[in-house]
Amino acid sequence: MSGSNGSDGSGPAAALFRPYELPGGVQLQHRMVYAPLTRCRAFGNIPQPSAATYYSQRATPGGLMISEGTIVSETGFGYPCTPGIFTQEQIDGWKPVVQAVKDKGATFFCQIWHVGRASHPHYQPNEELPISSTTKPVSGQCFSLKSMQMEDHLPSRALAAEELPAIVEQFAAAARNLVAAGFNGVEIHGANGYLIDQFLKDGINDRTDAYGGPIENRCRFCLEVVKAVCDAIGSEKVGIRLSPFGGFLDGSDSHPYALTTYLLEELNKHNLAYVHLVEPRVAGNTDLEYTLHSIAPFRSMYKGTLIAAVGYTAENGAAAVESGHCDLVCYGRWWISNPDLPRRFRLGAPLTKYDRATFYTQAAEGYTDYPFLEDSEEGKAFLAKLPAN
Ligand SMILES: Cc1cc2nc3c(=O)[nH]c(=O)nc-3n(C[C@H](O)[C@H](O)[C@H](O)COP(=O)(O)O)c2cc1C
């Protein structure tokens, strides 16, 4: 069989198909990580049977998947139809989803999430103001569940220091619930301008107490969450996602290298499953914009497993592994529209383009109906041209 198209694993994406062992002894068969991707199809905030189909379509033997952001408590919501993990119904809703992924031989981490001020009273108990490190509202708008249209963010309520242990415990309880639901571990969502990032970044955090001001203070809440979650389920079951340079939801910092250096030094003290860094490229509902910054300096600072995310292709992902830029590469949008993305990368097969219009809609369209290679005319034609085994 010819290796020119990589069908024997020797093509341009070959480095992505080297095995890797996570701390805790999890054996991965390849380096591609399915990204945390909110899909807004968890009606009543409970994962639906369609989620089992969706995730199992994308699960691979020896692969690592991270679930969509999953909300740790009633005050954590800020988007329609996102799943939670603080009621028995939510735990039970996740169980068949996790089982379906495990049946495919994949390792499944769940991303635990509190959106903080990126919410709106319409999502909050008693329509109270969302909570945050600050009272400053996010600039821009959010989708209101009541008016069903975009509305300005309102000011938030700054949490008192005495309230923080209870929020920290919500993350720990969520982690315990997720392990009870069968997940292999959790990813703490410390990125993209959500609650933890609202403490980390001086573009948001304007506190003057022990949780604001100097870097050590702004990292305190994040590190308390990490410690509590590690204590709850074991550090080798815990990952964390950070966006050192992200400006999403105003989550930027005046000294991103200093902030992230301190954080990584502290995270080195735990034997975490991984640290997951968002590259400084804008994604989501816009096309990529590249910036001058890079996560590259953080590789040598963090001693454990490093995942890099945003804007990766087969070629630059493999190059990132080859060069030691990261250990594992996270793929989002292309894995939405190509359920068999690792196979396509290995074969050098054509990709189905993702449809942004269905990222956050509630139907099966754009969710469970993207074709496998065999299911499209283009894919069939490609497979027919491959040398026979
Ligand atoms: C539809 C959609 C939903 C997303 N949801 C989440 C999420 O729940 N948690 C998170 O940390 N990032 C989320 N992201 C960001 C992705 O995890 C990923 O970083 C982003 O898509 C860039 O990677 P890519 O270039 O491979 O798509 C989302 C992105 C998209 C497009």
Task: Compose a concise summary of this entry.
This protein has 389 residues and is of the alpha/beta class. It is built from twelve helices and 16 strands. Residues 35-38, 68-69, 111, 189, 191-192, 241, 278, 283-284, 309-312, 331-333, 359 line the site of flavin mononucleotide.
Outline the structure in words.
- The chain has 389 residues and is of the alpha/beta class.
- It has a single domain, classed as Alpha-Beta Barrel (TIM Barrel), CATH 3.20.20.
- Helix content is 30%, strand content 15%.
- The chain contains twelve helices and 16 strands.
- It has helices at residues 49-58, 88-103, 164-180, 195-200, 215-218, 220-233, 256-267, 296-301, 314-323, 333-337, 341-347, 377-385, and strands spanning 20-21, 27-28, 32-34, 64-71, 107-113, 131-132, 141-143, 150-152, 157-158, 185-190, 238-242, 274-278, 281-282, 289-290, 306-309, 328-331.
- The strands form five sheets. It has an eight-stranded parallel β-barrel, surrounded by four helices. Strands 1-2 form a two-stranded antiparallel ribbon.
- Helix 1 (49-58) runs parallel beside helix 2 (88-103).
- The protein starts with 19 loop residues before the first strand and ends with a helix.
- Residues 283-289 have low confidence and may be disordered.
- Bound molecules: flavin mononucleotide (FMN).
- The site of flavin mononucleotide has 22 residues, from strand 4.
